[in-house]
Design goal:
alpha+beta; Butyryl-Coa Dehydrogenase, subunit A, domain 1; 3 domains; four-stranded antiparallel beta sheet; 11 helices; 8 strands; 49% helix; disordered N terminus; binds flavin-adenine dinucleotide
Length: 376
Amino acid sequence: MLGIVGDTGVSPGLPPELAAELCASAARTHRTGVPDPEALAALRGSGLLGTAVPARYGGTGGGAPEVNEVVRRLAMVNPSLAIVAFQHFAVSARIAEWGSPRQRRELLPALADGSRLAASAWSEPGAGAAKHHITSTGERRRDGRWTLTGAKSFTTAASIADLYLVLVRTDDAAHGDPSLYGSPGQSFFLVPGDCPGLSADLSLDLVGMRGSATGFVSLDGCVVADEDRLGPEGRAADIIAAVREYGATLGAVAAGIARAALDLALEHVVRRGTVAALPVRHRLTDTATRVEAVEAMIERSGARSSPDPGLTTLHSKMFASTTAEQVCLELAHLLGSAGYTTASDINRLVLDARAVALMGPTNELCRDIVAAGWAR
Ligand SMILES: Cc1cc2nc3c(=O)[nH]c(=O)nc-3n(C[C@H](O)[C@H](O)[C@H](O)COP(=O)(O)OP(=O)(O)OC[C@H]3O[C@@H](n4cnc5c(N)ncnc54)[C@H](O)[C@@H]3O)c2cc1C
């Protein structure tokens, strides 16, 4: 394995032992496609999972800048666990923002100390990137509780999460245009991983992000209390729209991947002596400039310092993911034959980078949302 951590000293801020363990795990899980319990335990015990939880609930009270930076640093050593952490942070932040006092009191401390891991189960086969055609349902029972039924796909941290933020349709007759992401009549529920009727399987064989436990989640008549609903009934789309205003971006995953690829290539050309060649130096310099630009954009998204922070979050995701994918591919070529072996981490990074564009909101959906603002 070419050294991502040790040789280049990257990943400041992650304890070196944790960084080394997650880095070794990334290579291992890429081969096996099976999540690594030891690396997960290390992440859970690191204290990092409390980043998005307010201090009064035991977290470190970070906002989007801190979330993006932790995710970026994790992605430098282990992109799969970076997306696991990203989903955990997203659910934690939604509970902090939209949760009832009881939900905050009961859930946030355990999400902060890592004893509970959270995941988002929104996507379904055929639901479409914009989630307009969700067929999973929530039906209100006579006793006021809800029965949840349906099949979710591409849920990151499936089977390893203790809590799922599940998107279901609760009102077929809801009127109004679908928003660009989500529709009227959809609601969110917080479902414990051990809820009777909930099952997860990891039979999805991904080409990248292979340590992320991204798989299927089935809801076979899961009964949950009305108090387990997150936010207003039928208004999940409002919560989804608010996500991008917060400034946390999956682009941070792409930024970490791009930086890791650059470090890997630099280490290689220095070791091989090809760094002396002017074209190689210039190529790497141009790549480094693009990685710097990605990182600056992620910072701008987290800082919410632009005139329209929600738009900046979308731009940062699109720019970071497309740039990271290009950068990884170009660097794979620069490594030459040495990069064309399964032992080279560059190939894993190429495949991991591709996932970010596909993750929600997909880059195409981001474009639609940005352009819709111009039509108003
Ligand atoms: C590694 C990974 C992890 C994921 N983790 C999660 C998770 O934790 N939770 C979760 O809920 N989901 C997750 N997803 C799913 C992700 O969020 C996407 O929403 C989902 O994959 C999109 O579904 P699709 O590609 O089947 O959509 P489709 O609608 O089939 O889209 C296929 C392609 O067409 C594009 N497209 C769709 N509509 C349009 C349009 N109108 N105009 C132009 N292009 C369009 C899409 O952007 C996409 O590229 C994950 C996906 C991946 C790859």
